[in-house]
Amino acid sequence: MSKPYYVDEDLKKFGEITEWQKELGEKYFDYYASVFKEGALTEREKALIALAVSHVVHCPYCIDAYSKDCVQKGCDEEQMMEAIHVGAAIQSGATLVHGVQMMNKVKDISM
Amino acid sequence: MALATKSLASRQSDLSNPKEQIKILSDNESVGVKSFTEKLQQIDLFPLKPTQLDIFQVNVGKMCNQVCKHCHVDAGPDRKEIMTKKTMQLCLDAIKNSTVHTVDLTGGAPEMNPDFRWFVEEISKLGRKIIVRCNLTIIVANPKYNDLPEFFKKHNVEVVSSLPYFSAKRTDSQRGEGVFEKSIKALKMLNEVGYGKEDSGLILNLVYNPTGAFLPASQEGLEREFKKKLREGWGIEFNSLFAITNIPVSRFLEYLIVSDNYEDYLTELVNAFNPTAALGVMCRNTISVSWDGYLYDCDFNQMLDLKFSGSTPQHLKDFNDKKLVERNIIINQHCFGCTAGAGSSCGGEVAK
Ligand code: SF4
Ligand code: SF4
After folding, report:
1. Residues A72, B214: C-beta atoms closer than 8 Å
2. How far is the CA of A5 from the centre of ligand 1 (A)?
3. Of A45, A66, B57, B182, which residue is least crowded by CB atoms under 10 Å?
4. Is residue A22 part of a domain?
């Protein structure tokens, strides 16, 4: 039987990446922990940003993790869906704005 | 997720038997986690001992107007077990001659006990601080309860009330259809007589329980959010928010099992074990009395029918506050709920 590419158990093993490169792995996890601490942004706001980015980068592990994290930190369904729309709007905007490049190129080569 | 809206007892569920629950909880090996005993041994806290007796928590009965899905008491309108006046008198006798500074009344809905008001008046005469765990909706459930805010005020009762979320959807999914709206109405009535208002001296604290298989986030952040939302949305004020972890007992245990979250939840609790929280678990300075006068380390042990251990008197009629501080507290895997993250007690986080 073929195995799926994504297995939710693998998320729990994320920490194991340090086994093959300790220094870089630990630096990364330290950095990660610091990023998500309350700062100028609250932990809640950071969780919502992470949720939006998770969708944009299409990471099922991050989507699971930050859906739970957002609920845990007191975000409601509407806020979470709006965050995803922000991600989607930027992502589609980033595609569409290249339309200008397309237009420029077409103009360049046209009479 | 749809769960029955009746108590485990009335559904004659296997889980209504405390022994059945203990059997599940005790099996830490199939979950693949350490036992609570091992964890306490590692930090030199086993056997777990009380420090002193400060808080006397009385569960005056399992009767309730609600049937919340996460209820560790398995309370509901169909539960008829309530404390008699005679047992209340035994409580008063015990409190009078003890170091207890606070009496914490819980249920069910404690106000549904016909002798509730008499009991509060008598405790008040003893000059002890009184906490009532009021589910809010009881205040508007029947005209005879509408004056509860005034009654609480008269006896300077500290009101502690559950509101799992500042929206109807999540609140009602845990506590029942229409509970949010009624709770808001009751909170307004409490505010009207001065509860939760600055300088009134009348304390109204809210309890946040996660509405599912996850741990509460930081109490401070949640309190900020709750204050903002309740003030902006409904003009409601309150003093503090207590973030309380759901303990895997009774109906919450059922929910975890039925929703296939039990192992993950337990693992999460164990991974979040915090030694500082373990030092401050509430059973070290609190005891819990059941409707029929038996004595327990906490309300959770009460629901698991784990009475005081060893030779410590197990019933109010033999109450001895010197002996009871010598006892060993009975622990099991559900205790991980009290030591996860910032810890959890009836007063919220324990490790700041
Ligand atoms: S959680 Fe409280 S309000 Fe809900 S059923 Fe249990 S005792 Fe009643
Ligand atoms: S569940 Fe009860 S006995 Fe166990 S740690 Fe918590 S308060 Fe103590």
Report:
1. yes
2. 44
3. A45
4. no
* Cβ pairs A/B, distance under 8 A: 31
Calculate how close chain A gets to B102, using CA atoms only, in Å.
31
A8 in any annotated domain: no
Question: Closest Cα partner for B184 from A76, B192, B65?
Answer: B192
Per-residue pLDDT reduced to its tens digit, B141-176: 999 999 999 999 999 999 999 999 998 999 999 999
- Domain of residue A61 covers 44-108
Distance CA B190, CA A66 (A): 36
Domains of chain B: 14-339 (3.20.20)
Establish if A42 touches chain B: CB-CB under 8 angstroms.
yes
pTM: 0.91
Name the closest ligand to CA B303.
Answer: 2
Q: How far is the CA of B45 from the centre of ligand 1 (A)?
A: 32
Judge contact between B172 and B184, C-beta under 8 A.
Answer: no
CA–CA min distance A69, chain B (Å): 8
Distance CA B106, CA B119 (A): 12
Cα–Cα nearest to B82, from B67, B62, B103, B96: B62
Number of domains in chain A: 1
Q: Is A61 a domain residue? A: yes
Q: By CA distance, what is A8's nearest residue in B? A: B264
What's the pLDDT tens digit per position in A86-102?
A: 999 999 999 999 999 99
